[in-house]
Structures are given as structure tokens and as C-alpha cells.
Specification:
heterodimer; A: TIM Barrel; eight-stranded parallel beta barrel; two-stranded antiparallel ribbon; 11 strands; 13% strand; globular; B: mainly beta; six-stranded antiparallel sheet
Chain lengths: 366, 86
């Protein structure tokens, strides 16, 4: 080929070799990917401002002046104040009984300690603001908003030389964020792990590209191979956002039991379900998701009630490391995650396969 | 941010407008996030949080909510609100 097809405007914006973004909750993965020539974003939504500041220092000690990103979850909808009182008492008996039946059927152990739930309404505005203040003060090179529209912080971020990325699941969200001036849009398809919109990656990426103008679009959802990377570039994306790809990497701090489940899983082993939280998300199938999918199951409750029901199961499974019960967010590309490799190797394999895929289609261009 | 940093207001131009909210938030106690969608009518009430202001609108008369939504209204972040009546 006459030019490097992997050298995109996203590479130029971020100062990286490869248009690959790793989204991870593990700092070691972030460091390994960045030091290998990719870009990485650390999910810090559930961390306190002090923890975030400490993590930023830890990262900078290991990557020097290279760019990195922090992902926060800006809430987009919250119940009116006072609506979440006496939560336990409001759970209907039918759902409560069904949850207890699952516990008995699978002999789910009790959690070892108090259930680690807090902030029942999800992250509130005050906490999100405090987290953002740390990112602005530290001049984190890239702020990624994993859910809500980050338009209100654009001016403050840009005045400090920072970039802001928004993750969207619908084209209308992308249009609004692009008009507001975000620096890149992550168009996330239904294939993705965790929260997703209802459009498939193959549909949402070119649709967002068609309205994005010069704003780079980053493809997300089910991307775990070089062929996915090559296809994303052909759809018009300037790079890819990958999460599941890194979960079973050597550096990942996930429990080895969960890593082994991921390595054995195929796309059909994931489930788009409301049963964990009351809000739709894709996770690895487990007895809890399977039971709530049965025809005789009651409907899952809204957040936060469903989370109250599922939290005992999840924490009990994790505390006692019950492989048959544990779950994790995973995208449909999990079937291609088949070996526990170093993150650096994962990145290089992805890039090499993408180049091979592109050459196999277009051949050597003069 | 203290309660004093939340500044309520009323936007007459939005009062009574039909809207949808592409909502969602973090799932407490996990590193997961969930989406939830709403449709209803904007009351016109809003709250600005902090500086620069982060505006939230009150959506009521809800015609679409997640099943079992525990309230008759929802606060929606302004960037996630879409007017659907033209």
C-alpha cells in the first residue's frame, strides 16, 4: 500500500502509532498499551476524587509525558430527590421471592461482608463534578464520557489543552455532541460489553460518520480482532475503542476464574439483560441472567431495585469465587479472546492482522 | 458541590414540550453502567449545578419509562434531552 492505512487522524490527534484505544479498569493494562504505541482510557467512574488523583500520578510515573485518558460516567437521568427512600420495602414480593428461589436453587453463598453498594441513585451530579474537577486540575489529556453528554465541560477542558470524547449509542446523541464541539465521538454498537444502544456496530458507525464532518469517529462494540479494526476503518472510523479484548490479558487484574470464563466464551455466551441492574447491559451469561430470562420469570425491576436483588448474588459469587455463578461485562467479540497474552502482544497481533486483512482485500497499491 | 450550588429556574419556552431522554447512570457498587430511556413532557423546571452550569430538566407526565420506575418524573441532563414535537 502506498501509505500506512493505520495512520489516521486519531493517531495524529493523540500522538500514537496505532488507532487503537483500550478501555480498561486496570492501570497496568493502560500502561502496557500506551507504552506499546496504542492509546488507553482508564474507567474511573466509581473512584473518589482522591483515588483518581493518585491513579493519575501512578500512571504518569510509568508513561511519562505520553497521553492517556480517564473515563467518567456522567449521569444522564436521575430520579427526583426523595424517590429512593425505603427501597427495600418497595421491592414487590413476586420479584423478591424469585430472587430467593435462585439463591436456593444454586446454593448461592451469602456475601462475606456488607454488600458494597453505595450511592443508590447512581453517581450523582455532585460526585461527577468533583471527579471532573480533578481531571481538569490535573490536565488529563483526554476526558472520555462513557454515558452522558460532556458538552458543559468542553470550554473548561479545551482552555486547558485537553480533549473530550463522548460515547454514544444513538446517532442523535452523536449529532448533539458533535455540534457542541467534542473532539471525537465513540460510536458504540449493540455488540459491546456493558451498556449499549440498540443499533449494531455495523450500522451506527457509518451513520455517525456520515454526520461527523471532520470530527473523528471511533468504532466500539464487538471489536476484538484485526479484521474488526480493518472493517472499522473501511466504515469510516478513525480508530477503534476496545474493552473485552483486554480483560483476559496478562496484566489484567480480573480474577483468574473470570479470565478463564472469558477465554472459553463465545458471542452466544453473552446476554443483553436488565436482570443485573434494571438497566440493559451485556454480560456473560450466568445462572442469575438465565433464570430471569425464563418465560415464567417476573419482569426485572427498574434501577435501583433490581440491583438490590442482584447485589447479594453477585457479591456472594465473587466473595466465594464460585466459578459457576460469577459474571462480567463482555462484548460479543469475546469469542476471539482465546489466549492470555501480554497487552503489548494483543496490540501487535491486532495491528498485524488488520494490515493483512486490508492487503488481502485491496492488495499492494502502487 | 453544596446544595447552594444547585440553582433552580424555569424556562417558559420549554414548559409543555414533548421530549425524550436518552438517560442512564452508573450502577452502584459495580464498574458497570446502564442505559434507560424516558418520554414525557417537560415541566419547564430546571436546575443548574455548579460552574460552568450543568443544566438538568424535569420531565413529567411520563409515557415511557423503565419498567417499575419509582417516580412520576425524572431529572434529565440537558444534553440528553431531545424535543420531539418539532
Amino acid at each position: 500500500m502506498s501509505r500506512d492505512p493505520l495512520r489516521t487522524k486519531l493517531c495524529d490527534m493523540l500522538g500514537v502509532e496505532y488507532p487503537v484505544i483500550a478501555f480498561t479498569h486496570c492501570k497496568d493494562v493502560l500502561v502496557a498499551v500506551i507504552n506499546a504505541g496504542g492509546f488507553a482510557v482508564l474507567g474511573e467512574a466509581m473512584h473518589t476524587p482522591d483515588e483518581i488523583a493518585a491513579d493519575i500520578k501512578w500512571i504518569r510515573d510509568r508513561i511519562g509525558t505520553k497521553a492517556f485518558g480517564i473515563d467518567l460516567v456522567l449521569p444522564a437521568s436521575v430520579p427526583p430527590v426523595g424517590a429512593l427512600t425505603e427501597l427495600e420495602a418497595q421491592i414487590p414480593e413476586r420479584q423478591r421471592r424469585f430472587a430467593n428461589q435462585i439463591k436456593e436453587k444454586y446454593q448461592v453463598p451469602d456475601p462475606k461482608g456488607p454488600i458494597a453498594l453505595h450511592q443508590w441513585g447512581g453517581l450523582n451530579q455532585a460526585m461527577a463534578r468533583a471527579q471532573l474537577e480533578v481531571l481538569l486540575e490535573e490536565r488529563v489529556p483526554v476526558i472520555a464520557s462513557g454515558l452522558g453528554n460532556p458538552a458543559f465541560i468542553l470550554e473548561a477542558a479545551h482552555s486547558r489543552g485537553m480533549k473530550v470524547f463522548g460515547l454514544v449509542g444513538k446517532t442523535r446523541q452523536a449529532r448533539k455532541e458533535i455540534e457542541a464541539g467534542v473532539d471525537a465521538v465513540v460510536a458504540q454498537g449493540f455488540d459491546a460489553a456493558g451498556h449499549t444502544g440498540s443499533m449494531g456496530t455495523f450500522s451506527i458507525v457509518p451513520e455517525v460518520v456520515s454526520i461527523a464532518g471532520n470530527t473523528p469517529v471511533i468504532a466500539a462494540g464487538g471489536i476484538t480482532t484485526g479484521r474488526h479494526l480493518a472493517a472499522s476503518l473501511c466504515l469510516g472510523a478513525a480508530g477503534v475503542w476496545t474493552g473485552t479484548l483486554w480483560l483476559a490479558s496478562r496484566e489484567s487484574d480480573l480474577d483468574i476464574i473470570v479470565k478463564e470464563k472469558l477465554l472459553a466464551a463465545s458471542a452466544e455466551d453473552t446476554n443483553w439483560s436488565k436482570s443485573i441492574s434494571g438497566m440493559t447491559m451485556r454480560v456473560l451469561r450466568c445462572p442469575w441472567t438465565e433464570e430471569w430470562a425464563r418465560p415464567e420469570a417476573p419482569p426485572a425491576l427498574a434501577a435501583p431495585y433490581q440491583m438490590l436483588l442482584s447485589s447479594g448474588y453477585i457479591q456472594g459469587a465473587n466473595d466465594h469465587r464460585r466459578a459457576d455463578l460469577m459474571t462480567e461485562a463482555a462484548g460479543q467479540g469475546v469469542g476471539f479472546v482465546t489466549a492470555m497474552k501480554p497487552a503489548r502482544q494483543i496490540l501487535f497481533d491486532l495491528v498485524e492482522e488488520a494490515l493483512d486483512a486490508l492487503e488481502s482485500v485491496v492488495g499492494e497499491l502502487a | 458541590m453544596s446544595a447552594a450550588d444547585a440553582r433552580p429556574g424555569f424556562d417558559r419556552a420549554l414548559s409543555g414540550r414533548s421530549a425524550e431522554c436518552d438517560g442512564g447512570r452508573a450502577i452502584p457498587g459495580t464498574h458497570l453502567v446502564g442505559r434507560e430511556e424516558f418520554a414525557g413532557v417537560l415541566t419547564g423546571d430546571y436546575v443548574d449545578h455548579g460552574d460552568p452550569p450543568w443544566r438538568w430538566y424535569l420531565l413529567a407526565q411520563l409515557s415511557r419509562t423503565p419498567e417499575g420506575w419509582p417516580a412520576d418524573a425524572v431529572w434529565c441532563e440537558s444534553g440528553s434531552v431531545f424535543l420531539i414535537d418539532g
